[in-house]
Amino acid sequence: MAINLEAYKKILEELEPFHAKLVAVSKTKPAEDISALYEAGQRIFGENYVQEMTEKQAQLPADIEWHFIGHLQSNKVKYIAPFVHTIHAVDSLKLLQEINKQAAKHQRVINCLLQVHIADEETKFGMDEKEIEELLRTVTTNANAYSNTKIVGLMGMATNTDDNAQVQSEFHQLHDIFTRLANTYLQGNTDFKELSIGMSADYPLALKEGSTMVRIGSLLFGKRNYSQN
Ligand SMILES: *Cc1c(COP(=O)(O)O)cnc(C)c1O
């Protein structure tokens, strides 16, 4: 249980020229590790599990910006709606509607990123471009019904492979989708500006392809041991 402050500083320096934000992914790691990185100046933390995130949020400083980055079930939105800042992996209209409903109960606006399926693997969640277009058409034509959510961009995960060319091409594809959507359904919408791509293994490629938010865990907090969780 030790955070890597050298890696933290190095990553911040690498992000600087791209004006990209760091989401420190603290899933499975204890609150003390988050506190230690908080002391070093980090404010944005990402979690994948609802219960773990609510438990940590309750014991950590109130000015932490919590990002939910994992697959979110509609019936669990209510637990994080009081405090979550951004939800990265919105993959259906139904989920967006539930987020809006729960955010409204707390008179909040929750930032949402739409998850795009770019990887080869069957297991990764997300929508294809057509599904995203449909969702955006619905939302933009009923804007009043979605006033407690703000669609701020897209999120994706590349295939878990050593083939850099493949990873880069998947990120590139995502950036193209982002640009097309921004120019069609979201014309003039300045909220739609984030591209959440890049993890410990591939964030340098993601930055080259226009990432504005990298989600980094193991480089900062060390390898995760799921058997203890
Ligand atoms: C765990 C996780 C990350 C961070 O992964 P690392 O390889 O540890 O940097 C990023 N994004 C998502 C969606 C994750 O689940």
Automatic annotation (TrEMBL):
<dbReference type="InterPro" id="IPR029066">
    <property type="entry name" value="PLP-binding_barrel"/>
</dbReference>
<dbReference type="Pfam" id="PF01168">
    <property type="entry name" value="Ala_racemase_N"/>
</dbReference>
<feature type="domain" description="Alanine racemase N-terminal">
    <location>
        <begin position="9"/>
        <end position="223"/>
    </location>
</feature>
<dbReference type="InterPro" id="IPR001608">
    <property type="entry name" value="Ala_racemase_N"/>
</dbReference>
<comment type="function">
    <text>Pyridoxal 5'-phosphate (PLP)-binding protein, which is involved in PLP homeostasis.</text>
</comment>
<keyword id="KW-0663">Pyridoxal phosphate</keyword>
<feature type="modified residue" description="N6-(pyridoxal phosphate)lysine">
    <location>
        <position position="27"/>
    </location>
</feature>
<protein>
    <recommendedName>
        <fullName>Pyridoxal phosphate homeostasis protein</fullName>
    </recommendedName>
</protein>
<dbReference type="GO" id="GO:0030170">
    <property type="term" value="F:pyridoxal phosphate binding"/>
</dbReference>
<comment type="similarity">
    <text>Belongs to the pyridoxal phosphate-binding protein YggS/PROSC family.</text>
</comment>
<dbReference type="InterPro" id="IPR011078">
    <property type="entry name" value="PyrdxlP_homeostasis"/>
</dbReference>
